[in-house]
Amino acid sequence: MEAFTVHTGRGVPLRRSNVDTDQIIPAVWLKQVSRTGFEKGLFSAWREDPSFVLNQPQYEGASILIAGPDFGTGSSREHAVWALQQYGFRAVIAPRFGDIFRNNSTKMGLLPVVLPAETVEALQRAAEQDPATEITVDLQAREVRGAGITAAFEIDDYTRWRLLEGLDDIGLTLRHADDITAFEQGRASWLPVTT
Amino acid sequence: MGRTLADKVYDAHVVRRAEGEPDLLYIDLHLVHEVTSPQAFDGLRLAGRTVRRPDLTIATEDHNVPTQNLLAPIADPVSRTQVETLRKNAAEFGVRLHPMGDDGQGIVHVIGPQLGLTQPGMTVVCGDSHTSTHGAFGALAFGIGTSEVEHVLATQTLPQVKPKTMAITVNGELPEGVTAKDLILAVIARIGTGGGQGYIIEYRGEAIRSLSMEGRMTVCNMSIEAGARAGMIAPDETTFAYLKGRPHAPQGAEWDAAVAYWKSLRTDDDAVFDKEVVIDAATLTPFVTWGTNPGQGLPLGESVPDPASFADPVERQAAERALEYMGLTAGTPLRDIEVDTVFVGSCTNGRIEDLRAVAEVLRGRKVADGVRMLVVPGSMKVKAQAQAEGLDEVFKAAGADWREAGCSMCLAMNPDKLAAGERSASTSNRNFEGRQGPGGRTHLVSPAVAAATAVTGRLAAPADL
Q1: Which residue range or ranges hold the Aconitase/3-isopropylmalate dehydratase large subunit alpha/beta/alpha domain (chain B) (predicted)?
Q2: CATH classification at residue B40
Q3: Would an 8 Å CB–CB cutoff place A18 in contact with chain B?
Q4: Which of A15, A77, A173 sits opposite B159 (nearest CB)?
Q5: B311 in the same domain as B181
Q6: Which run of H or E residues covers position A99?
Q7: How far out from the chain centre does Cα A8 lie?
Q8: pLDDT tens, position by position, for chain B (465 residues)?
Q9: Whole domain around residue B19: which residue ranges?
Q10: Whether B306 contacts B331, CB under 8 Å
Q11: Do A176 and B16 touch (CB under 8 A)?
């Protein structure tokens, strides 16, 4: 996983609520068996509209998505995270995230930042008024800074540590392989097997 | 203090608990399908890892599979590659697979319960958000992403932070003609698509207890549509009767020991939920969605809402956008909305009871002119059962298209899709923009409403016929 410490970049205001993962990447893109090439599928239905925010030249190269409430609801497709990252986003700021999407993001090093709706709105306004506005997402300090705003955000210590170090969960879990084996010995004998 | 059902199942699976770290939770059953697994198997290969417990893992082909001409190769080369990749991975890593054409094939959330692999008190995961379906058995079941799929394949565990608990109690009896689907659509409209976020929902109360296992699966299936991590229903005699005799259910003395344990899986009387919602079943009626998220629903007797009627500016804007996408005008009675497609199927409503409900309405009637109706069984076993009961003849006589098993038009990854501007009444779970095909418009409904709608060509309940 890519480590995340501090990132400074420009923001894209996405003023929509309930942006489900079917919008972030429509199902037709999920047929790929590789892990790359998903940037083409990012918001592909909405990008057909020339006025869609990602088609506006002033937001080209921006790396922080400033979204409405309930971003990433619906399907568990991690492809949504891959698409955002491969397009160039490092962080998404929103008042609330879909559970699975947020989880998937922290596994991949895309930082989901929860801020109050008014703060998100203020950041969206700033990015609209001056698309060159730089925003800093500081995981070390658990803080978003920019456009005259300094806003603290919450993230649990463990996830923060994992993201700062860029650590992969499987490696961490396998250090406890003996605990897993011990647990398996105590499982009820009636539990089903598939074979 | 007492514990909830969710607490009991969660606590029984904690492999390791340490201060400042997530719990390590053991996974009893891992369901795999072709869409969210290829990159996970690749990850294992790259790291030189194996599948820790292939005997607790099962795979099926469902999302991409065509529902016609099963003997021909899949026409879409990308879909075909994805299905073939699963076959190669299953063979290489020793995972049992139910491929297209196999009589055990079907939608991942239909085959688990059908085989008796989903049992009370288990932890069940799958790279699919509708894994919440299995909570109907009193299992803790939730959807995961591909990184987590790889994690479970490699370790049979997942790092987890214990979610909060929410009780949704539905008191009283469901009125005649009101089904599990209507109930859950009403719940989502009430608490919103984010209302369950961070919670495991336990559905309780007389109306829930009276539901069949199929109905309970429909309810738990859509927990994710309210944003919840999982939905659960305490196991009872209905659960045990459903499980007894299934291929993977315990037998003999093992069965008795299992049932004794399963009976302990209920929320203690003095347990406290983090949040409680109470619903009076008597107030429920057939429910349909009008918008582009599952929370945008209303009783069938109502009209398309006026966006100006929403006090919250975010909801107002969402409603405006939804009406534009759906091509609807505020104030139009929902019963006046004409559809050109009716889809019956999916992990929400593709089980035998759902097909029976549809057949009951269609018997002796015809699908309206200009309406195409697809009936897609959730599994090949459901298909065989429906045919043994003669339901396929009822569908065909009415003019509906009777298909092979798969996810089909629920998410349009196979050839079954809506064209831009087409409008469906669908028994599936998501009315998102483009979900059933780019530009397609979806109204979520129960199987009974789907069947009545097919007959009239407009959103309708069986009582309207």
Answers
A1: 7-457
A2: 3.30.499.10
A3: yes
A4: A173
A5: no
A6: helix A99-108
A7: 16
A8: 899 999 999 999 999 999 999 999 999 999 999 999 999 999 999 999 999 999 999 999 999 999 999 888 899 999 999 999 999 999 999 999 999 989 999 999 999 999 999 999 999 999 999 999 999 999 999 999 999 999 999 999 999 999 999 999 999 999 999 999 999 999 999 999 999 999 999 999 999 999 999 999 999 999 999 999 999 999 999 999 999 999 999 999 999 999 999 999 999 999 999 999 999 999 999 999 999 999 999 999 999 999 999 999 999 999 999 999 999 999 999 999 999 999 999 999 999 999 999 999 999 999 999 999 999 999 999 999 999 999 999 999 999 999 999 999 999 999 999 999 999 999 999 999 999 999 999 999 999 999 999 999 999 999 999
A9: 5-160
A10: yes
A11: yes
CA A96 to CA B195: how far, in whole Å? 11
CA distances from B39 to A39, A139, B62, B189 (A): 16, 28, 17, 35
Count: domains in chain B: 3
Domain end (from B226, B249, B283): B283
- Is A30 close to B35, i.e. CB distance below 8 A? yes
Gap between the Cα atoms of A112 and B270, Å rounded: 37
**Amino acid in position B34:** E
Domains in chain A, please, with CATH? 6-186 (3.20.19.10)
Contact at CB, B314 and A17, closer than 8 angstroms: yes
In sequence order, the 6+-apart residues with CB closer than 8 A to the CB of A37 are: A86
CA distances from B158 to A51, B20, B249 (A): 42, 16, 25
**Is A45–B438 a contact, with Cβ atoms under 8 angstroms apart?**
yes
- B329 & B274 share domain: no
* Rounded-to-10 torsion of CA A89, A109, B38, B222: -80
Look at A73 and B293 and tell me if their CB atoms are within 8 Å: yes
Same domain, B340 and B368: yes
Residues B213 and B156 both lie in one domain: no
**What CA–CA distances, in Å, run from B2 to B235, B271, B274, B277, B431?**
18, 4, 13, 19, 39
Residues of chain B in contact with residue A157, where contact means CB-CB under 8 angstroms, are: 20
B55 and B115 fall within a common domain: yes
Give A-chain residues touching B22 at CB under 8 angstroms.
158
Based on the domain organization, do B276 and B293 belong to the same domain? no
Spatial contact of B121 and B265, defined as CB atoms under 8 Å apart: yes
Asked if A21 and A75 touch (Cβ cutoff 8 Å), the reply is: yes
Domain closes at, from B135, B160, B185: B160
Residues B128 and B189 in one domain: no
Q: How far apart are CA B150 and CA B171, in angstroms?
A: 41
C-alpha of B453 from chain center: 21
Is A154 at the interface with chain B, CB within 8 A?
Answer: no
Distances (CA, A) of B412 to A50, B296, B312, B421: 25, 21, 33, 15
- Using the Cβ of A185 and the Cβ atoms of chain B, whether some distance falls under 8 Å is answered with no
B114 and B251 assigned to the same domain: no
Look up the pTM and report it.
0.97
Instruction: Return the number of other C-beta atoms located less than 10 Å from residue A177's C-beta.
Output: 12
Gap between the Cα atoms of B222 and A17, Å rounded: 20
Q: Which of A32, A36, A58 is nearest to A127 (CA)?
A: A58
